[in-house]
Design goal:
5-stranded antiparallel beta sheet, globular, about 40% strand, mainly beta, 30 strands, about 425 residues, 2 helices
């Protein structure tokens, strides 16, 4: 999942988005329990016009949270469709959920998950690949607002995946009504190995979907595809690139979101290798840099991932807006090992309006030490700070993901274990400390 770092457990450290700006005064927050008794929550969306939320658990269930209480029966249970997960740590599972823009009238929603490998008659994939990642459509059961019809499943997208990690697979509808899908680079480390383009890496290989942001139309069909290719996709008419691609050059985009406010920009936390972590604003046709660079334009050598060359080809790359040191290779002043993308706050606290709330899974694999950050834009630069969590003693839980309600308030989805174990986890509402 977000950790996405097998060849060098990530890390993070407070660094200004663009060097030279003064640090901000530390913001104090409280984490108010919203719902507990969850198994590894990785995403949560609100039903339009209601106080109900759909919450996904990594091991394969979609739960209904109604007025802050979780209903006993799941909305959807797809555990049999997911490979057996490693109990100590796994990046596979039920990874994303998105409601159709017309959900209230058509009852359609979408999930992304790691499925049993569909090698599509490719012997090499059968022998060497780990699983397939899937985007699937479901429809609500007629007359039951808290149940989905399992027989309504419609496979939208299937992608064979080389390794167990770097899955990405946040999904979300943009303000344009199209479905966006974040695709990791295929796993292992350094964008190298089985299933990777050894010359340039999957992130830069426009002939594959890995290491990209995709944009598709679930209400249309293009040829034999179970979805449509929007005519205004940047590579829709480029024979050398996959037409689904919206942006390229991503390593493991772990949790993205559209700003529900004025800009509507797409923010993604992109898990980097060993030295830096990054937040990126992703736009149409942009190359976000991986594996030519990591962090903010730090030249990257996949054969020597901890040594950053003094120069490299940076042409055509859109820089990240925020970076911080990763504790794996840059322990001094570090703030984590795997970035978790968040949301631009648009809630009732005026002082937070327009600030980007995000986090990091933990500062260590050895113990939970989750981090929550707040970034503020000043001119064309972003500064980040570590939020001070008031009223919660000891180390903070692992920060898996964030969510946002219709009022613009932001939630932290957390776990007290490194793997999808039990039902011990909690979703918190992030509020100002009084």
């Amino acid at each position: 999942m977000k950790l996405a770092k097998i060849g060098g457990a990530l890390s993070a450290a407070l660094v200004l988005a663009l060097a030279g700006d003064p640090a901000l005064a530390q913001t104090k927050i409280r984490l108010e329990p919203f719902v507990t008794g969850v198994n590894t929550p990785l995403a949560m969306v609100q039903v339009p016009g209601e106080n109900r939320f759909f919450l996904i658990e990594q091991f394969g269930r979609v739960r209904v949270v109604d007025n802050g209480k979780m209903r006993p029966a799941p909305l959807l249970d797809i555990r049999t469709k997911i490979p057996k997960l490693h109990h100590d740590f796994d990046e596979r599972g039920l990874l994303g959920i998105a409601l159709h823009p017309n959900f209230k009238s058509n009852g359609k929603f979408y999930v992304s998950y790691s499925a049993h490998l569909d090698f599509q008659q490719d012997l090499g994939q059968m022998l060497w690949y780990d699983h397939s990642n899937v985007v699937e459509e479901y429809t609500m059961t007629k007359g039951d607002a808290n149940s989905a019809d399992p027989s309504s499943a419609r496979r939208i997208l299937t992608t064979p995946w080389p390794q167990f990690n770097h899955n990405g697979h946040w999904i979300g509808f943009g303000p344009d009504g199209k479905l966006y899908v974040s695709m990791g680079d295929g796993g292992y480390a350094n964008d190298w190995g089985i299933g990777h383009n050894v010359t340039i890496g999957n992130g830069q290989d426009m002939s594959v979907l890995l290491g990209k942001i995709l944009r598709i139309d679930v209400d249309a069909r293009t040829g034999t595809k179970p979805y449509g290719i929007p005519s205004d996709n940047p590579f829709a008419n480029d024979k050398s690139a996959k037409p689904e691609i919206w942006a390229s050059g991503l390593r493991n985009p772990w949790r993205c979101s559209f700003d529900m406010g004025g800009t509507k920009q797409l923010f993604c936390g992109d898990v980097q290798q060993n030295s830096y972590e990054a937040i990126k604003i992703v736009g149409k046709g942009q190359n976000m840099g991986w594996r030519r660079v990591e962090g903010i334009m730090r030249c990257f050598d996949y054969q020597k991932p901890d040594d950053h060359p003094a120069s490299c080809d940076k042409s055509g790359i859109t820089p990240a807006i925020i970076e911080y040191n990763n504790c794996t290779a840059k322990p001094q002043g570090c703030r984590g090992i795997s970035v978790t993308g968040g949301y631009v706050y648009q809630g009732k606290n005026a002082a937070w309006k327009g600030k980007y709330i995000f986090g990091d899974w933990s500062k260590s694999f050895a113990e939970m030490d989750g981090q929550i950050f707040i970034a503020t834009k000043s001119g064309d630069k972003w500064n980040m700070e570590v939020a001070e969590v008031v009223g919660m003693s000891g180390k903070k839980p692992y920060v898996l993901a964030f969510a946002q309600d219709a009022n613009g308030e932001v939630y932290a989805l957390t776990s007290v274990t490194t793997g999808p174990n039990g039902s011990l986890d909690t979703v918190y509402r992030i509020v100002p400390a009084q």
